[in-house]
Design goal:
The protein is of the alpha/beta class. It is built from 16 helices and 13 strands. The strands form 2 sheets. Strands 1, 2, 3, 4, 5, 6 and 7 form a 7-stranded mixed beta sheet that branches. Strands 10-9-8-11-12-13 form a 6-stranded parallel beta sheet, with helices on both faces. Bound molecules: nicotinamide-adenine-dinucleotide.
Length: about 375
């Protein structure tokens, strides 16, 4: 049996006090084993866009909580990236290593299609461009496809580029020049995003210190940049004499302990959800550490895949990702003016754009 049913935000229940989603859809196809949830936080700026996470959640409730939080975060990210897109996200419950199949992905694609363009999907944890090619056989609302299929390919290219633009803005704000030349930058996690960020930093003349749990990832950087220093882990990196800390591994890097010990004056990295809990943004500000909000500086990836909707053009996407520099500076200025941490200023700017630009759709266009 295959069924899909929409839940009102009230039925979905509040998650972290958020009960504002426009639409939450549960998608089930027993034969292929598909159990997915698509959440649309809002469409104030346009159709929602966000990736599909394929993950072995412990329960449907855990998957629901994740997709509600992630779709809300996408609304804020897309708003500050200057995109005419709302916030959405999807989760497929299961182990991508064993449960992923052509039938499952195509069944999922049909549910995406059934939303009529209210939700565009893309890659996330557990899904790859090749998977999006399969989903796209059943749906027109798919981004993050392979280059061979007209897609934007690996989004970490512009994610890393955007993080670098955000870091240049932070350097301008703190040191008065938009360059990392002569600064020591600690990069935690040199995977797809982190290793590309290291390339940019070395090119700019920064001294780079890295750590990664994967010896292979470290070795790739060592081969390309023998001058890069390697330390054992986060503790060694944040205790080191660095000017900038760039979390590019998992979420939650900025916990109480790390913030208390951190010697850097700037935090700017690609990882999602860097603040371990609400209040960390204030601890950073109180210690005089400038935090470049994660969802602002790592929006190059969504800018890259969103460009696919018009027919992918790397130059156009890159020009848009370059604007992350101006947006980050604007957030720092707004934070200073209002006396709030940059993370709060970013949220306010995003909410303002969603409200002000979203409102103009109420202007009647005639027939
Ligand atoms: N790829 C994108 O376009 C994109 C876009 C926006 C945000 N992000 C975020 O950026 C981060 C990195 O993404 P990615 O695509 O580079 O992933 P990735 O898996 O390619 O890289 C992550 C790296 O971090 C390392 N790592 C894991 N745990 C670690 C630890 N405790 N200490 C040090 N290193 C550790 C891994 O070994 C890996 O090399 C993630 O938080 C992701 O959500 C990625």
């Amino acid at each position: 049996m295959t069924d899909v049913f929409g839940l009102s935000h009230k039925d979905a229940g509040p998650v972290n006090g958020q009960a504002k989603h426009e639409q939450v859809v549960f998608c089930t196809d027993e034969r292929s084993g598909l159990h997915a949830i698509i959440a649309i936080y809002n469409t104030a700026l346009g159709p929602s866009l966000g990736g599909t996470r394929f993950y072995p959640y412990e329960s449907e409730q855990a998957a629901l909580a994740d997709v509600l939080n992630l779709s809300r975060a996408m609304a804020y990210k897309n708003a500050l990236a200057g995109l005419d897109l709302g916030g959405g996200k999807a989760v497929i419950i299961g182990d991508p290593a064993t449960d992923k199949s052509e039938a499952l992905l195509r069944a999922y694609g049909r549910f995406v299609q059934s939303l009529g363009g209210r939700y565009f999907t893309a890659c996330d944890v557990g899904t790859y461009s090749e998977d999006m090619d399969i989903v796209a056989r059943e749906s027109s609302y798919v981004t993050g496809r392979t280059l061979a299929n007209g897609g934007a390919g690996d989004s970490s290219v512009l994610t890393a580029y955007g993080v670098f633009q955000g870091m240049r803005a932070a350097a301008e704000h703190v040191y008065g020049a938009p360059t990392l030349r002569g600064r020591r930058v600690g990069v935690e996690g040199v995977g797809k995003v982190g290793h590309r960020l290291v390339d940019r930093l070395v090119e700019d003349g920064a001294e780079v210190v890295i750590c990664d749990v994967s010896e292979q990832a470290v070795e790739r950087v060592r081969q390309l940049h023998p001058g890069v220093e390697v330390v054992a882990g986060r503790r060694e990196l944040t205790d080191a004499d660095i000017d900038v800390y760039a979390p590019c591994a998992l979420g939650g890097a900025l916990d109480d302990d790390t913030v208390a010990r951190l010697r850097a004056t700037i935090v700017c990295g690609g990882a999602n959800n860097q603040l371990a809990h609400p209040g960390v943004e204030k601890q950073l500000a109180d210690r005089g550490i400038l935090y470049a909000p994660d969802y602002v500086v790592n929006s190059g990836g969504v800018i890259q895949v969103a460009d696919e909707i018009q027919g992918f053009n790397m130059d156009r996407a890159k020009a848009k990702a370059t604007q992350i520099y101006d947006t980050t500076l604007k957030i720092f200025a707004s934070a200073a003016k209002d006396g709030v941490p940059p993370a709060v200023a970013a949220d306010r700017l995003a909410e303002r754009r969603m409200s002000e630009v979203g409102r103009i759709r109420g202007i009647w266009l005639g027939h």
